[in-house]
Amino acid sequence: MTNSRFVSYSLLLTVFFGVYFFSTISTAYAASNSVHLDSFPMKTLNNKASLQNGAKLFMNYCIGCHGISQVRYGKLQDLGLSKNQIKDNLIFNEKLTMASSILTSMSQDSKVWFGKRPPDLSLTAKSRSSSDGSGADWIYTYLRSFYKDPTQATGWNNTVYPGVNMPHVLWDMQGIRNAVYSEKDDGGTKKLIIDRFVFVTPGTLSSSEYDDNIADLTAFLVWTAEPEGQFRKRLGVWVILFLSLFAFMAWRLNAAYWKDIK
Ligand code: HEC
């Protein structure tokens, strides 16, 4: 190996390990004040029944406060719903048509009631992604992490989003949980931390049924953030297959062209 080659190889190695080292440090730093997120069960994304159930839950429990303005009612046909099913089961206002965006029915002064206006959820599955996990993991864990907290204006708090201004709207399904605290010694000062949760009122669903429904609702919010997302992934596989075939043909053609010259 010549000297200059040796220098460029060592330089490349240094840059590579430098980038690796700093990215590890920054991830560790970002994760230091983070919460544990449960993994969202991805299989619901390709399942039309899951997505339809998610849409139904959204229209029944969330539309009162949140819109998904990036999606029009007609687009819900991609989930396997017919025009009539959408009109009869999901459109609750006669003035709306298939071309209308899915907006919240909440009035403008809601901000005063909750201290914060409920955000549009079209892109939350993207905006909440971080080094802790995907945006889907965040939503999936958030909707399963509410507990009763009398110090909060809404009466509810959330371990994933402490101090959140949203009440637990699905409490009848999950049940009502109270936090049990324990004292922790934090460098000389005593701190109260949540030890575990106890149910004070049982929900109408079992814990695994509740998780399944939240997985469906999360899948629906992942779909709203990118309705063509699953198509894009399927197309990607075909593009890679085509490129591999093309590369093979180019290789054989190249060999055929140079056969007599070499
Ligand atoms: C009574 C009104 C209300 C209802 C109903 C409601 N939310 Fe909320 N939601 C809020 C408010 C207010 C916030 C903002 C909380 C904050 O930032 O403190 C919020 C925040 C959120 C967020 C966090 C957004 C972000 O990135 O900060 C998600 C996700 C969410 N809601 C999902 C839902 C889902 C899913 C439903 C239906 C099951 C629902 N919400 C029903 C009021 C509501």
In short:
The chain is of the alpha+beta class and 262 residues long.
* CATH hierarchy class name of the domain at 31-147 and 208-227: Mainly Alpha
Question: Hey, roughly how much beta strand do the residues contain?
Answer: 5-15%
Bound molecules: heme C
Shape: flat
> In terms of structural class, how would the helical and strand content be classed?
alpha+beta
Description:
By secondary structure, the protein is an alpha+beta fold. It has a domain at 31-147 and 208-227: Cytochrome c-like domain (Cytochrome Bc1 Complex, Chain D, domain 2, Orthogonal Bundle), CATH 1.10.760. It is built from 9 helices and 6 strands, in the order ααβαβαααββαββαα. The strands form 3 sheets. A two-stranded antiparallel sheet has the order 1-2. A hairpin with a 2-residue loop joins strand 5 (175-186) and strand 6. The chain is flat and about 85 Å long. The two termini are 28 Å apart. The structure holds heme C. Residues 61-62, 64-66, 114, 116, 118-119, 121, 124, 127-128, 139, 142-143, 164-167, 169-170, 217 line the site of heme C (HEC). Heme C (HEC) binds at residues 61-62, 64-66, 114, 116, 118-119, 121, 124, 127-128, 139, 142-143, 164-167, 169-170, 217.
